[in-house]
Amino acid sequence: MIVNADDFRDAARRRLPKIFFDYIDGGSFGETTLRRNRDDFDRWALEQCVLRGSMQQDLCADILGHRAALPLMLGPVGFLGLYRRDGEIAAARAAATAGIPWCLSTFSIRSIGSVARAAGGEGYFQLYILDDRGLTEELLAGAERAGAGALFVTVDTAITGIREKDVRNGFRAATRLTPAMLMNMATRPAWCLDVLGKGTPSVEAVDHRAEFGRGALEQAANLSRRIDKTLSWADVAWLRERWNGKLVIKGILTAADAQLARSTGADAIVISNHGGRQLDAAPSTISALPEIAEQLGGEIDILIDGAFRRGSDVIKALALGASGVMLGRSYAFALAAGGEAGVAKLLNIFRTELTINLALMGLDSVDALRRNGRSAVRFLDAPRA
Ligand SMILES: Cc1cc2nc3c(=O)[nH]c(=O)nc-3n(C[C@H](O)[C@H](O)[C@H](O)COP(=O)(O)O)c2cc1C
User: Fold this and answer.
1) CA 193 to centroid of chain Cα atoms
2) Which residues are annotated as a binding site for FMN?
3) Which of 9, 90, 230, 348 could form a disulfide with 340 if both were Cys (CB 3.0 to 4.6 A apart)?
4) In the prediction, which pLDDT does 241 show?
């Protein structure tokens, strides 16, 4: 039974082959940051405020200049089309129907053009700058043609952290399905029928480039090898000149880097540690937020991601200065478990939890919460068990 966001994780585990479930679920190395992202929400309490009368809740929020129906958006998650057939389109449709933006990963089965055409809504594109600048410009042109209103440049993955579950499963190292993978997939017939039933998916954006090989696994392995490992702020400046829409830097954890993003011309940042998949032992995102918001609040739009599973998590981030929250694993699991309807249900769960918690805090809107800011939360400095 699906009652909360975590229930989708269990449902996805039952439906997905182990290699894909572990790829979504895992973090890097000892998974310290992965755990911290979740645990550190408990260090903040929400202020209860009673007898304010019954009230109509307004959950709308401004995200990158767009009035969204919820203070949420779907962040970029790679390979959605391997968890569900046309998963990118299904997720984007659920977002569009709920009135929130979606952001398509560079590592997607369907291209930004196809997703924008099929789903509509407020769509953005996430770019990995590749050492092949020609292909990078091709991806940019595709995003522009598709009408993407913002470009998210991910800057925390020039070098990939080791995700030990993937190493054990042989994921990413493999460019073709191995016998062990095939045997594992055979234990998930519903997934096989859905995702492999009409042939092996491939990465639409590089299908025309023979050098990337054929089939999603080989193309993805070649794409990730081409992520520029020498990326610097000069490359962000290069991108700023080429992109006329909003530019968002994803993967910021310090106020100093947030300042640099602003001075390089970024419109927004995403406070992110890639869901604990990169620098292990990095701080949680919720612990990094207050200092960044204090130093840059009002000067740049601040988005955040990392283990948001509850409406109360979202409320804490908004009170601490974020203008919106990006979902990652929670919607990837909901998509794997239930397709478009699964993501719609997840967003509905967030909507309900936000509504009830705001009411119990005596607040009638997300805007009022953001105005109250830090006074809506309390830091609990008690030692944890
Ligand atoms: C399976 C998976 C694939 C991801 N792929 C990308 C990607 O292609 N580009 C990107 O910028 N971030 C990617 N991310 C990171 C997410 O955008 C986000 O930062 C992170 O998942 C947030 O943490 P959460 O999953 O705990 O909510 C990926 C995350 C996961 C779990």
Assistant:
1) 27
2) 76-78, 105, 126, 154, 250, 272, 305-309, 328-329
3) 90
4) 96
Tens digits of residue pLDDT in 46-58: 999 999 887 789 9
328 C-alpha to center of ligand 1: Å? 5
Q: What are the φ/ψ torsions at residue 127 (nearest 5 degrees)?
A: -115, 130
What are the structural domain ranges in the chain?
5-379
pLDDT at residue number 174: 75
Where does ligand 1 bind, in terms of residues with CB under 6 Å? 23-24, 37, 75-78, 105-107, 126, 154, 250, 272, 274-275, 305-308, 327-330, 332
Residue whose Cα lies nearest atom 20 of ligand 1: it is 275
Hey, which bits of 253-379 come out as E strands?
268-271, 301-305, 324-327, 377-379
pLDDT bracket for residue 287 (50, 70, 90): very high
Least confidently predicted of 6-10, 193-197, 314-318, 324-328: 193-197
For residue 322, give Cα distances in angstroms to 48, 136, 205, 319.
20, 30, 32, 7
* CA distance linking residue 280 with residue 162, whole number of Å: 9
Q: What is the mean pLDDT of the chain?
A: 95
pLDDT band at 384 (very low <50, low <70, confident <90, very high): low
The CATH number for 5-379, chosen from 1.10.1040.10, 3.30.360.10, 3.10.690.10, 3.20.20.70, is 3.20.20.70
Protein residue with its CA nearest to atom 6 in ligand 1:
77
pLDDT at 187 over 70: yes
Strands 66-68 and 61-63: antiparallel
